[in-house]
């Protein structure tokens, strides 16, 4: 389907070829992706998601390290009960 548009600046008629709903959907997707406010919120969402996952990773690492440190301390205390460390 060809749609003619007459612009106010020039007397030329521009013709655009629309194949149907899919091209309109594609243009809406491009508008959505190229919109600066949308890009800002998507960037903020990505940063928040990454920082949250990184904080969970650090928390788990600290917990695991504390547990391992305590386990090794218990093993050393059992192996060397009268050692100078204690």
UniProtKB/TrEMBL annotation:
The chain crosses the membrane at residues 40-59. Keywords: Membrane, Transmembrane, Transmembrane helix. It comes from the Bacteria. This is Uncharacterized protein. It comes from Pedobacter psychrotolerans.
